[in-house]
Amino acid sequence: MFKRILLTSFDTWLSDQQSNSSDDLLIEVTKLQLIPHNLTFLHRLPVDVQLASSQVIENIKSIQPDYIVCCGMAASRAQLSVELTASCGESVLHTDVDLEKLITGAAAIEISHDCGKFVCEGLYYCVLDYLNQSQLSARCIFVHIPVLNGENLSGILADFLLIINNLALSSSY
Q1: Which of 172, 151, 161, 120 is nearest to 31 (CA)?
Q2: Could you tell me if 59 and 23 are in contact, meaning their C-beta atoms sit under 8 angstroms apart?
Q3: Could you tell me whether strands 85-88 and 80-83 are parallel, antiparallel, or unpaired per DSSP bridges?
Q4: Alpha helices in the chain (DSSP H)
Q5: Taking Cα atoms as reference points, which of 161, 169, 171, 167 lies closest to residue 33?
């Protein structure tokens, strides 16, 4: 049985940005139309922790996904990074997903312990906190996406699809 997966991306935040690689990657996934999974896309979240978190939580309430895959741009990184933790002040939350198992078979995905101190970490923390407080069985991961180009797109897309497939076809992570 396929799992319901909510995938999110951010809008741009600088005036000179033409796009956000997190949204660019989700657009590429929607073009494929060969994934038989139950995917819901929440594109171009505002680059504001409170607004983005509210939109994601409303979608979680509405569609009741099994997994939430939040995506954000990481221009300084060269490969996909799956985040283990998010913090807010002294509080640190960990994903319940077994990331080592999740990325088995990937060509180039790293498990990161640095979600950054921007809106990415704020959103991840808020979603993890909401899932914990609400005692929902849904699981959340955050994936940082490097800037996409003609040289890296196919490899990054393949690794991202591996993540989606592993979540969708798993009995549990």
Answers
A1: 161
A2: no
A3: unpaired
A4: 21-32, 49-63, 99-102, 119-134, 153-169
A5: 161
Tokens of 92: 């640190």
Q: Which residues contact 11 (CB under 8 A, 6 or more apart)?
A: 20, 23, 44, 45, 46, 47
Per-position pLDDT tens, the chain of length 173? 679 999 999 999 887 778 999 999 999 999 987 656 789 999 999 999 999 999 999 999 999 999 999 999 999 999 999 999 999 999 999 999 999 999 999 999 999 999 988 899 999 999 999 999 999 999 999 999 999 999 999 999 999 999 999 998 876 66
Map tokens 């660019």 to a residue. 24
Q: How far apart are CA 54 and CA 51, in angstroms?
A: 5
Distance, CA of 123 to CA of 35 (rounded, Å): 26
| Torsion from C-alpha of 86, 89, 91, 96, nearest 10 degrees | -10
pTM of the prediction? 0.96
3-state secondary structure of 82: strand
Phi, psi of 78 (to 5 degrees): -105, -10
Q: Give backbone dihedrals phi and psi of 145, rounded to 5 degrees, phi first.
A: -110, 125
Q: Which domains does the chain have, with CATH numbers?
A: 4-169 (3.40.630.20)
Compute the half-sphere exposure of residue 151: CA atoms within 13 Å on the CB side of its CA: 4
